[in-house]
Design brief:
Helix content is 66%, strand content 0%. By secondary structure, the protein is mainly α. The radius of gyration is 23 Å and the shape is globular.
Length: 331
């Protein structure tokens, strides 16, 4: 008896879900599309929220920023759970490798004068800012409308806790495996004049009821703060021979570049929306300008603290960064 083996191709009866066929045609959908597009709950809610009965439990009116079609915005990174976790595992491993190298070579103890203080008294205390940013991101994930937006915010929330943990690990390394630097960093965050403007900003942003406004405000402050701490100071550290600072800063700088990808895409979708574009653009410019005014005041004591330790000329850098982010009439 002989057997003949043949390859038989079985065509699937359907290539994807009906709601995706209606949007994109009868083609195989990506896993990102299947887990994202039109997933937002819109009907059959059991009750309105007792704390705001004027709205449904999931409602477009939780923000003045609106999209005619929430899925006109899609994450350019195409993150759903699996690729997100894979990406962040790689980031965590890379940071661990860097910190192990820094500790193994005793590089924190070899920092030039003033740079250890910048790390311990300016950078490490901002772990509390990252913790506040996590709360803002979670709020956007809960009250945002459209899964493509809310899942980006949820992943950003995880990222902010990861950033806080990275800064905490730097603090523990500076404290020679004790919590002394972390304890002092919390006292600086709560009591020192250098951090009170930033602390006030993040606490007020946490309580903002419009998730779109809080998201834009946080991102605007991020652009100023990250540009200052992990851009300008990075360059100053290299010039001053403080390469260890640069090794640490590179990880947070790289994360922020990734964060900006989805936010820039969201702003573009808001501005170009056929029905709400003009109103979105006006509110976006208003929120950015208001936050930049806040940043100028809030971060002035922080840059003064930096320049008291090292000659980084952070004050002029702050002014330049704020001016560069001011919306133009065309935007």
């Amino acid at each position: 008896m002989q057997y003949e083996l043949r390859t038989q191709v079985i065509e699937p009866q359907r290539k994807t879900f009906d709601h995706l066929v209606k949007r994109y045609g009868d083609r195989p959908a990506t896993r990102y599309e299947e887990g994202t597009v039109d997933v937002q709950a819109k009907e059959n809610f059991h009750f309105r929220p007792l704390w705001d009965p004027s709205k449904e439990i999931y409602d477009e009116d939780f923000s003045a920023f609106k999209l005619t079609d929430p899925y006109s915005f899609l994450d350019p990174r195409q993150y759903y759970y699996a690729p997100y976790v894979t990406s962040r595992a790689g980031i965590s491993d890379a940071f661990s490798t860097t910190l192990d190298y820094v500790e193994g070579r005793g590089l924190l103890g070899r920092l030039p004068a003033g740079w250890r203080e910048v790390l311990a008294e300016v950078i490490v205390p901002t772990r509390h800012y990252e913790s506040g940013a996590q709360l803002v991101s979670v709020d956007v994930a809960r009250f945002g409308f459209g899964t493509s937006i809310t899942q980006c915010a949820a992943y950003a929330g995880f990222d902010r806790i990861g950033n806080a943990q990275q800064l905490s690990r730097v603090g523990i390394a500076l404290g020679e495996q004790t919590t002394a630097v972390l304890t002092n960093a919390k006292a600086i965050w709560v009591e020192d004049e250098s951090m009170q403007g930033l602390r006030k900003f993040i606490e007020e942003t946490i309580t903002e009821r419009d998730w779109g406004v809080s998201l834009v405000a946080l991102d605007t402050m991020d652009q100023v703060l990250y540009g200052l701490l992990y851009g300008h100071l990075d360059e100053a550290a290299i010039d001053a021979g403080a390469g260890t600072y640069s090794l640490i800063a590179a990880h947070l700088s790289d994360w922020f570049k990734d964060q900006r990808r989805w936010l820039d895409a969201l702003y573009k979708a808001w501005r170009e929306d056929p029905e709400h574009g003009d109103a979105n653009a006006a509110l976006l410019a208003q929120t950015v300008n208001r936050t930049l005014d806040t940043a100028a005041t809030a971060l002035a004591p922080l840059v003064a603290a930096i320049d008291s330790h090292v000659d980084a000329k952070s004050g002029p850098a702050l002014d330049i960064a704020i001016a560069a982010l001011r919306p133009t009439t065309a935007s």
